[in-house]
Design a protein that fits this description.
heterodimer; A: 2 helices; B: mainly alpha
Chain lengths: 174, 79
């Protein structure tokens, strides 16, 4: 007990600790005795347990890394898909806008053509009316000229007959 | 000392070794240890030698043999 390694009663403190808490796995509540060194079975079990813990830690780390990588890949994939969807939507909207613009332009052209057609129809109708009036005027002038010619002819005939000394009433039809 | 021997429950021994190296009192160390370890409560920590002997006797432990192994343990950890 007088070893120089210990002083001030530390050897007794170690004795108490060794008996109470065990040394190498033994204690009062278990199998406390001087053979507290780990047996080969204890050592092998501890080594196996340590190896198992290390392997489990490596597996957990690998799993965590895999999970992180998987999550990252999914996130990247989702981002790519969202970007593609956005691009598709933008293209679709732009396409719809172009279609709408084309339709609007088409309607505008149709409206202009209808208006032009109306103008042309009105113009055509006006021309026809004018032509009809002109024709009627021409017909009236022809009829008038004809009548005048008949009148002149009748008067000439009447004069000639009067010159013959007999009166012949005019019978020329008007 | 075979380092594999330390694979067991020698945490308390290592704590005690550290306290001894720092020059702490073994009684103060055990009193502090008793605050969190009820196994130590009720022991007469004012008489460490008497308490150690009593514990060894109650558990059929050869105190001299155990003390020799503790000394070997301490020497191997001081190397």
């Amino acid at each position: 007990m007088g070893d120089s390694t210990f002083s001030g009663g530390w050897i007794f403190a170690f004795l108490i600790i060794a008996v109470i808490f065990g040394w190498g796995g033994a204690g009062v509540g278990g199998n406390a005795n001087v053979a507290a060194y780990a047996t080969m079975a204890d050592v092998n079990a501890a080594i196996n347990n340590q190896s198992t813990q290390q392997a489990l830690g490596a597996i957990q780390l690998s799993s965590a890394n895999n999970n992180y990588e998987t999550s990252r890949l999914i996130s990247d994939q989702n981002m790519t898909m969202l970007q593609q969807q956005n691009s598709n939507l933008i293209n679709a909207i732009q396409g719809f806008n172009q279609v709408s613009s084309n339709i609007a332009n088409g309607f505008s052209n149709v409206s202009a053509q209808i208006a032009d057609l109306g103008y042309r129809m009105e113009n055509c109708c006006c021309g026809i009316k004018t032509m009809m009036l002109e024709n009627r005027l021409q017909d009236a002038q022809i009829a008038l000229n004809n009548q005048n010619a008949r009148i002149v002819a009748a008067e000439q005939s009447q004069y000639l007959l009067s010159q013959l000394g007999s009166f012949v009433p005019t019978t020329a039809a008007v | 000392m075979n380092p594999l021997m330390m694979l067991g429950n020698s945490n308390m021994m290592m704590q005690a070794m550290g306290a001894m190296m720092r020059g702490e009192s073994p009684k103060d160390f055990l009193r502090n240890l008793a605050n969190t370890n009820p196994q130590l409560q009720g022991l007469n920590l004012d008489d460490l030698e008497g308490t150690a002997k009593s514990l060894c006797e109650k558990n059929n432990i050869n105190m001299n043999e155990l003390a020799a192994k503790i000394q070997d343990f301490a020497k191997s950890n001081n190397k």
